[in-house]
Write a structure and sequence with these properties.
141 residues, mainly alpha, 434 Repressor (Amino-terminal Domain), 6 helices, elongated, DNA binding, Ribosome-binding protein aMBF1 (Putative translation factor), Cro/C1-type_HTH, Lambda_DNA-bd_dom_sf
């Protein structure tokens, strides 16, 4: 018998478990079995799949995602703070010490990742030698 032959109950001299005849199928090694689709009739690859929304004409056009105004404001203000700090020759550590936070927090303010709390504005204004109103002036980033 060949390696790909499946033995049925008659070949093993056993009585069949059911009266229905068994269908013999070729054996697969474990590597071959992994490559076989679970259900060959439904074996669609990603390239073969159909987008139902596209097919039915219900797909919405996606608009480019815009940053919320608050995030743009935080980033703009952060750039201005960094520019002023470097103009004065101050390190992030020095500003952090004066404000009472870590240099990582100052970095987050400058990158616009964290919003500056209102209570911090007067202290930061004094450290950067600017009036409090400087934080609310519009300026290009």
């Amino acid at each position: 018998m060949g390696a790909n032959t499946v033995l049925n109950h008659e070949a093993l001299n056993h009585a069949p478990a059911r009266s229905a005849p068994r269908v013999s199928t070729p054996r697969f090694g474990h590597n071959q079995l992994l490559r076989q689709p679970a259900c060959p009739a439904v074996s669609l690859m990603a390239d073969d799949q159909i987008d139902l929304e596209d097919l039915l004409g219900t797909k919405r056009a996606t608009m480019p995602r815009q940053e919320p105004e608050r995030i743009r404001w935080d980033k703009t203000l952060g750039k201005r703070i960094r520019r002023r700090r470097t103009q004065l020759g101050l390190s992030m550590e020095r500003v952090a010490e004066a404000v009472g936070c870590t240099y990582q927090q100052v970095q987050k303010y400058e990158l616009g990742r964290n919003a500056i709390k209102a209570a911090l504005v007067p202290v930061l204004a004094e450290t950067l030698a600017v009036p409090v109103t400087w934080f609310f002036e519009s300026s290009e980033a």
